[in-house]
Amino acid sequence: MTDDTVERPLDAEPEAGDMEIRTDVLGHPWEAETIALPPDEEGEVVATLVRRRAELPTERAVLHVHGFADYFFHAAYGEWWVERDHDMYALDLRKYGRSIRPHQTATYVADLEEYFAELDLAWERITKRDGHTKVVLSAHSTGGLVVSLWVDSRQPEELAGVFLNSPWLDLQGAPWMRTRPATALLDRIGRAQPMRVFPRAVSGVYAHSLHHLHGGEWEFDLTWKPPESFPVRFGWLRAIRAGHARVHGGLDIRRPVLVLSSDRTVFTTTLDEDAMSTDIVLDVQQIRQWAGALGRHVTSIAVPGAVHDVVLSRPAVRERVYAEIDRWLSTYVD
Length: 334
Fold this sequence. Notes:
This protein is of the alpha/beta class. About 30% of the residues lie in helices and about 20% in strands. The protein has a nine-stranded mixed β-sheet with strand order 1-2-3-5-4-6-7-8-9, sandwiched between helices.
């Protein structure tokens, strides 16, 4: 973010011109476009498409989708793509980041296919309106699950490849949580009491390990990516488990897929060396276990020392991450 970026409270009113392309909170030359979506039971719904163009006109682009309790602030990651002659786009999904509205329950959907509407409209803008014919989809964590389901459903012809950064492909935690009885119970509660909050403890260590005020390297809006996260609700978790089940049944992503993750998971609650060099959010063994279920051509790589969002790892590890993406692009992506 630029020095003049200010944090916005979740109850801030939409700014004038929200439906126009405007300078983004990341500052020039980043732009943001609000995409109006059909209202839901809570009222107005929007998504936000962020964009930065390459120096010269190009038919290549990348579209990035964030994870849970997250939004796009990854300017350095976007610039890496721009330097490789891709126009960079990122989508803040409904009820996340730039797209949160005062009347909304942040992050909540009852079905992951609700996100298909903004993905469809973003894709149409990138391809039909802006003329890109070769588009890489990039996604992190929960976004990796959503994007995988969308590609399996839509099979867009302009898709060149899919890069998944620590995708959420199964439910971490004790084995009993993934048993058939536990899943059935979650399904019943999610149907009957979708807004009921799922009990969990959040230490805040992950966000603190990234933020520059707490020993990390990155600047981001702590109202849009709060250390305490957002409440997880049973209806949302039911939707996630339905998405996991679809992955476990096998998807049909027909373009090359790259899955990057850390080499280790340590569920630490202390801001220690493990917090700075492992995945402390998801179980990387599960990521590797299910990566092959995504499609026909999947490359899965464990990066030593990487954190959950691999492109936010320490500089030397980031170099390895970018080298792996570059190698995959030059080897497999048209």
